[in-house]
Amino acid sequence: TLFRSDIYYCERSKNGSLGEVKNAGSEINTFGDEVFPFISKENVLIFSSDGRNGFGGLDLYTATKNGDKWGNITNMLKPFNDTKDDFGYVIDPTNPNRGFMSSTRLGVGNNDAIFSVDILSTDEPKVEEPVVEKPVETPVESPIETPIETPVVIP
User: Which DSSP category does 113 fall into?
Assistant: First the structure.
């Protein structure tokens, strides 16, 4: 481990055998936590980090691999990220415009909720850049016991 929680990976050969486990390196891993990795069919790494300038808490990022190095690390911006923890984004293997993600954005303490994601348009979305400062969170007295499933709609 280079830092707190790092992402590791290994490559799978055509015959199904797995290669050596490797740390994704300092291009991906920061002083913070890098967690919940997912590789899309297009070989894009999607992961969450709280060690980069973001909206607050864990934010979702993408990265691509060139040779042995990861690079082109990009914050997925809003509506994927907000001031709460956003993590665990997975893409439907049969439809890249659908998927699921987890978040604490419902404002009910630190309870996680699973959101379905439907990307309705491939037009460039209105981009809102993350802020550098992390907001102070106020605890909520009565958390919801059961997560609420709410779709995240990309205009």
Answer: E
Confidence of residue 146 (pLDDT cuts 50, 70, 90): very low
pLDDT at 147 over 50: no
The candidate with the shortest Cα–Cα distance to 59, out of 129, 12, 2, is 129
Measured in whole angstroms, the distance separating CA 143 from the mean position of its chain's CA atoms is 24
Q: Which residue, among 98, 102, 112, has the nearest Cα to 154 in the 3D structure?
A: 98
What is the number of residues in the chain?
A: 155
CA–CA gap between residue 120 and residue 103 (Å, rounded): 20
DSSP 44-77: -EEEEESSSSSSSSSEEEEEEEETTEEEEEEE--
Where is pLDDT greater, at 67 or 132?
67
Q: Return the structure tokens found at 19.
A: 């290669």
CA distance 70 to 77: 20
**Other CB atoms within 10 Å distance of the CB of residue 54:** 26
